[in-house]
Amino acid sequence: MARRKHSNSTASSVSSESSHSSTHSASSAIPAPPKKKATRSKKKRRLSGGDEKRATTNKESDIDPHEEFLATAHCTARCIDVFCKTKQLINVGLALQQHDAAENGELSEDEDTRVCHNKQLSKMSSKVRERYKRNFARLLQLSPSLKPLLGNPHKATELNAIIKKMDATISATRSDDASHLKSQIGHYAAFNTKDHPIRPAIYDGSGSRTHMGINHPVLVRFLCLVRELKRFSEDADKGLKDIQCGKINLTASALPAFLWAGDLPGEDYNDDNMFEGMFDGYLLERTMRHIFTSPSSAYGGETRATRTCNAILHDMTTVDAAHIAYGCLQVRFGISAKNAWSEIDGSFNYHNFYNNIIELIKDSPDPEWKEELLKAWNVKLFKNEEGRDNNTIQDGYNVSGSCEDTNNDLARIRTQMTACCAAKAVLTPASSNHQPTPASSNHKPTPVPSREPTPVPSHKPTPVPSCEPTPAPPPITSRPKPRPRPIVKPKSAVPADPVRAVSRAPSELTEAEPDEDSEPVQPATKNKKKARKAPARKSSRK
Question: Where are the alpha helices (DSSP H) in 297-393?
Fold first, then answer.
């Protein structure tokens, strides 16, 4: 039985193979229609002929409805507070508003709310409170749509989603700027990149940053404390070891040398006048241009960027303390040996460093120094000490807006036009008051003292009034007209006009006057046509 089954199975397999081969040959002989292509085309037709509203809704869904708040977050990182926590800022800002309103009698608080606010605000110093008030006001100014969401329990879920997105965007903005600077900060650190590049090279191809910062013999001078720079310059190797082992402690309250001006960092530092040349280092200047204007303008040239710069996106018209602090933060992290971002680098705290710079500039005891510093930064970024909106000098002229430009032809043209219009305004009323009118023609017009009397044009029929009597002109007699010319009309007598002269020259528009000796010319009639046709009639009679 088993053999029969096996034979049957083999036979069936052979038959199946033969049938498969026959069908395969048949199928190869007759080409199968492209069913797949037809189905695909049908699907495409169905998709293309589907509802267009779904496609539009899908496109609209790609646009984030919270775009306004994300733009505010980008601006917050670069222009307000890079360490901002949005939820904390909103809570503290609202508490400060309610506390001030309750103290002024504008709002009545219950006992529990008042105790809660006092407990929350008692740990803050006056400077911290002012910073929260300032940042909260800027936040509401940049995002007016945020006001209806505050204090509304029905909008709490939406508000929490917006806060999470804003916090993530603030962190991403700082990270993006740091990553873009990573490939350029080594070139910016060299005062003269072409002639004197940094040795050893900063970019070794490994992608790691562990050889930078205090581990690099050149970059360590940028991070060295400015007050320890003299000792570092005397013996660089010993100074490097002291920094690495912690004898020279790098803290946020001890400012680094790259903040001061000089071909070498801190070369122009004066220990008796520390604020002279501060925040004027070339590495800080190049980094600020890279972030706020464009990377192509980092060395002071005109920007060649095709995208809108961050200064325009954030409506940044003038440089403020927060902008300078953000640039200092990016420089400090850009040349450090840290591969990943962290607020603490050894004993150095970036958050404290950032706030110290803002308070140093904003709360400066010398207002003139602060004003000159911000104007100098306006010139560096916008080429005008008044800021970006008042930038009237362009095309690469690094000149202050308050300085006079002697080669400005447009200003001279406008000045001359203004003077000319003023002169016309003075002379026009005087000339219009002394023009003669028909009612006062018997009186002699008073001449203008500054101008000569204008002569009366010859085409006016009215004579110019004068005191002396004018002699009467001789009468003009008409010539006798011949009788055979009845078409000529009699010439009217010319009125006596001492000013207008009668022209005797013949014209094409006037008929010529015949002489007495000339024969009368008969007018042209239709008899000429009849005379021409007469010979033709005679020939026909013949």
Answer: 310-313, 321-334, 350-362, 367-382
| Predicted confidence (pLDDT) per residue in 194-240, tens digit | 777 888 888 877 888 899 999 999 999 999 999 999 888 889 889 89
348 bridge partner residues = 345
- Neighbour count for residue 248 (Cβ, 10 Å): 21
Separation between Cα atoms, residue 537 and residue 529, nearest integer Å: 13
Between 25-29, 99-103, 201-205, 275-279, the lowest mean confidence (pLDDT) is in 25-29
Question: Angle 126-142/67-75 helices, nearest 10 degrees?
Answer: 140
CB 53 within 8 A of CB 61: no
Phi/psi at 375 (5° precision):
-65, -40
- Give the ranges where 30-155 is alpha helix by DSSP (H): 35-48, 52-62, 67-75, 86-103, 111-121, 126-142
Q: Which token pair is 38?
A: 């037809």
Q: What's CA 46's distance to the chain center, in Å? A: 45
Tell me the per-residue pLDDT of 392-418, one tens digit each, with 9 for 90 and over: 333 333 333 333 444 566 777 878 888
Residue 342 corresponds to which tokens in the numbers above? 């962290």
pLDDT of the residue at 416: 82
Two tokens, residue 185? 């900060």
User: Rounded CA gap, 471 and 462, in Å?
Assistant: 16
State the pLDDT at residue 196.
73
Locate 454 and state its tokens: 């204008």
Which residue, chain included where needed, has tokens 């003299």?
A: 230
How high is the pLDDT of residue 2?
A: 44
Q: Which two tokens stand for residue 3?
A: 């053999």
Taking the C-alpha atoms of residue 381 and residue 298, their distance in angstroms, rounded to an integer, is 9
Q: Which residues pair with 196 in a beta bridge?
A: 192
Nearest-CA neighbor of 222 among 173, 184, 186, 177? 186
